[in-house]
Amino acid sequence: MAFITSKWNGKEYFPIHNFHHVEFYVGNAKQSVHYYRSAFGFEPYAYSGPETGIKNQVSYVLKNNRQFFIFTTPLNSNHPGSEWLKKHGDGVFDIAFLVDSAKEAYESCLSRGAIGYNKPFSIKNKDGHYGKSSIKTYGDTIHSFINDRDYNGLWAPKFDSVKLPNVKTENTALVKIDHIVGNVELDKMDDWKKYYETIFGFMTFVRFDETDISTKYSSLKSIVVRSKNWKVKLPINEPAKGIKKSQIEEYLDFNEGPGVQHIAIHTNDIIKSIKALRNNGVDFLVVPDSYYDDLKKRVGNIDEDIDKLKELNILVDRDEEGYLLQLFTKPIEDRPTLFIEIIQRKGSRGFGQGNFQALFESIEREQALRGNL
Fold first, then answer.
1. Model pTM greater than 0.90?
2. Given this model, what pLDDT does residue 289 score?
């Protein structure tokens, strides 16, 4: 049964202001950059590699309004990213947060049991002050802490501007990262809930069990932890026992362990966003027409034209604070692992509980086509 609370009961050991960026390990950053530019409307922002003094990798920073994605490709087999890619394929390696002090955040987390990944790095030069550190989280994913509010350089030390060929793309009206979802093993969800509460002082404000998210074949459990200011929301899923393999189990098999399942991107105009994304070639999950038959009865009055939502396959859900609209892409790589959610919030702070059934069944249909149900 769902458990939802908005009352803050966390501790906030140190302020986490927002998502800073998401870094992907990819086999060919140049090609990934082209895809995210042409499909999702990102623009080149910065680059590091051999030309900037970094010999073992290349990294491209892409920007779309208030969100930054980094695509990093190792340049030799000794780079830790090479083993990462061999195991997981292209995916999210680092979920980075904006903090006041990377050193203090790192030391604070380690004092409560976190495992370090990169020790604090700090530089002060003509461009100002830049600090970074990293700790481990589920699977082979990390969290980096960035303090760069007093840094006036382009992105970070040893990054330079980059000019790439023009790409024709429609404006996708995507604004910022809304939340990032991780998949973990059976019976590990509550361990990671405790981790985020203990290490970061986050609180759990949503919990769903197999009675909330299930079909006749499979089910999952999910919790959502958040920062005090609501800017960072991190749902965590685990499989629940069912007759057949769940979508979470399929993810864990193909990812060879826990990792980031999807990134939810916020838009202020989901109709404009989905229309542009579809025109740019993004492939979304299919929602049956029957979903819209009693939509108004289920969610009440909304600002959007239901026929237009039906045409674009956009889902709607309402809670006591308002409503939201959302839609999920199909997996954006050959491994059925990472995908993107597009979400617009009209007051609601939820995650579309009323849509779980339709989405779960849609994902199962794709799973069945792959022979993995």
1. yes
2. 86
DSSP state of 289: G
In sequence order, the β-bridge partners of residue 67 are: 64
Euclidean distance between CA atoms 25 and 27, whole angstroms: 7
Give the strands of the sheet with 91-99, arranged side by side.
43-48, 57-64, 67-74, 16-25, 91-99, 142-147, 128-136, 116-125
Encoded amino acid at 201, one letter = G
Task: Give the CATH architecture of domain 16-147.
Answer: Roll (3.10)
Q: 63 with 43: CB under 8 angstroms?
A: yes
Q: How many CB atoms lie within 10 A of CB 227?
A: 23
358 — phi, psi (to 5°)? -65, -40
Q: HSE, CB side, 13 Å, CA atoms: give it for residue 189.
A: 24
29: left (phi over 0), alpha (psi -120 to 50) or beta: alpha
Helix (H, G, I), strand (E, B) or coil at 330: coil
Biggest distance spanned by C-alpha atoms of the chain: 62
Domains of the chain: which residue ranges? 16-147
Which amino acid, residue 194?
A: K
Q: Per-residue pLDDT averaged across 66-94, rounded? A: 98
Of 154, 167, 140, nearest to 59 (Cα)?
154
DSSP string, 8-62: -----SS-EEEEEEEEEE-S-HHHHHHHHHHHH--EEEEEESGGGT--SEEEEEE
Give the integer Cα–Cα distance in Å for 189 and 370.
26
Write b or e for each residue in 306-318: b if 16 or more Cβ atoms lie within 10 A of its Cβ, otherwise e. Answer: eeebeebbbbbbb
Quote the pLDDT of residue 293. 86
Q: CA angle at residue 60 from 56 to 62, to 5 degrees?
A: 160
User: Which token pair is 186?
Assistant: 């059976």
How distant is the alpha carbon of residue 228 from its chain centre? 19
